[in-house]
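The aim of this short unit is practical: by the end, you should be able to scan a pair of folded records and say something sensible about each. We start with the first protein, listed as its amino acid sequence and then its structure tokens.
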Amino acid sequence: MKLLNTAIACCLTALLAHNAGAQEKERLRIIGEDTKFVVQTASGPLEITREMTSCAKNKGWLQPLIPEKGIHPVTEIEILHALNDKNSIVVDMRVIDDRIKGTIPNSISMPYTEVAMRLNELGCAKQGAKWDCSKAKKVYAFCNGPVCPQSPIAMNAMIRDGFPADRIYYYRGGMLDWEALGLTTVRGDF
């Protein structure tokens, strides 16, 4: 509860500072390369922008809820159940420098740049130059949160190399939401 209160206070402080006319901050990407999104309101166009806050984990950009056709979006509830499911693997696809700061208990470390080379650890078998993923486990993938591109990049590579999209479950909230909700994290679990 303390972590959730801290996260809420952090976000409210950032919002108040922004609204109080705080100094101009670096504009971050929202969708793709765009740093603004214009909404047509009854009062005319309104520009939505994004800035780095103390609550944010990185400077990425918003990731779609379903990064590739066939991938299943999941919440914390499904992640919790997957942690005890022998047919599932919860995979932290963040770089090691992020994982050492804390991760979801019982998850395995597989940085996004290595996933396509390590499909054997997810139940696939190398068949010459291709992968046979007919016996693949269910993979619950996460990274830093809604603006982190690491797990979507890895999931795209998995599918490209033969991993079935319908066996991939994407926790878009990632560590940002996990920690904001005050759920247990572990350090040094490799």
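Turning to the second protein, read its sequence before its tokens, just as you did above.
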Amino acid sequence: MSTTPPALPTSMPTSMRGVVMHAPGEVTVEDREVPRIVEPTDAILKIEVACICGSDLWPYRGISPLAAARPMGHEYIGTVVEVGEEVTSVKPGDFVVGSFCVSDNTCEICEDGFQSRCIHGGFMGDTQAQYTRVPLADGTLVVVPGGKPKDPDVVADLLAASDVLGTGWFGAVAAKAGPGKTVAVVGDGAVGLLAILAAKELGAERVIAMSRNPQRQALAKEFGATDIVEERGEEGVSRVKDLTNGLGAHSVVEAVGTQQSMEQAIGACRPGRHVGFVGVSHGVSLPGGLLFGTEVHLHGGPAPVRRFLPDLIDRVLAGKINPGRVFDQRIPLDEAPEGYKAMDERRAIKVLLEP
């Protein structure tokens, strides 16, 4: 039996602007239908700000397949405008931060702290728009205490928590960053830079940033890096070992996702210690001999951001961290194609979109 979709609240428009990727290098901003409640566990958000992720560049560059045109975006904060009848933890008017992974936050995997692998979950995929539908709203969204901050920089800080801050934090946690340890970070994109911030917040004594870009090196130092290594590959590994009495770092965060970056991360880690890998993997194949011979722990994958969100929001609101510094361009949503181009050409670390 067919049913009629529920009507939109009278205060909501029927159409909105949203980003669509049609082919590698081809991004447009188009009129799209405003999403509606589909499941009783859904919420509809009016997006306050969104952004372009480094992982969005994989299909943009033609490295990841793009079978058909699709909406873009998975990082978001905004105001709840409608909820399904089974939603209890958020209500219309709440200002919320959402994880890029959808989760019920109640299954056994979620309870173990891996909401990114929720047995009922999935991923957001259309947040570079004026509105978005969030499935499993109770387990995916976190209400910001006190509502929407007046300071746009704090709003940007909260947006970072939706993915890149949470992902960098997970990388540092997976690498067992902590007091008295030396942490090396492979990658100077937003995730790598925020892994540096996370390592410092977690008490690392020394943080080695692996970067060749002067602008990103400066931000790395602002976030807590004590050393900069510009070399890559085997030369980069040798340089890290030179800085650590030939032993390697206690903790290494891999935040790129290539063969070279993974081998560099493993090589820079001292035996018995930990590599946290959070770069989206493309074409990575690890030889058994490398794994057997290095004797390092590997842990990573999509970050369970929901696990960390309440703590990260509190740190932002208390002024302890300023992860929004990674947004070095802020542009209107309708200029998103230029934002993609700027990030592809490494003229921008991360672009914030204002609907």
